[in-house]
Amino acid sequence: MNLSHVFCRSRSSSTSPPLSDDAATIICIAAATTTIVNCSIFNCLTPPVGENTSFLLVGTRELELIEGIVAPWILKQSLSADVFKSMNNLRVLTCNGKFTSCEPPFLPNELRWFCWRFYPFSSLPLAHMNKIVGLEMENGKIEQLWKEEKIMLQNLKFIHLHFCGSLKRFPDVSGAPNIESLILYGCENMVEVDESVGSLEKLFHLEIIRCSKLKCFPSVLQMKSLETLILRACWSLKIISEFSPCMVNLSNIDISNMGLEKTSFKSILNSIQELKCLNTLRIDSIHIHALTNFCYLRKLYLRNDLGDNDFPKNLRGLSALEELHISFNSKLIQLPESISHLSGLKHLLIRYCKGLKTLHGLPTGIQVLTVDDCGLLEKIEDLSKLYKCLNKIQILRCAKLLGDKESGRYLDNMFNQSLLKRWAAVDGCLMIDVPGSNIPSWCKAQQDGCKISLKLPPNWQTQIIGFAIFCVSIRMLLHPGINLKFQNDEMLVSKSEANNNINETEEADESEVESEDESDGAYWRLSTGYIPYKFFEQFHGGNDYDFEGENCFHKTEANLVVEIPNYWRHVVRCGAKVVYKEDVASVQQTIPSLSSSSFYWSWKLTNEFPNSFECREE
Question: Would you give the DSSP letter of residue 97?
Answer without folding.
Answer: S
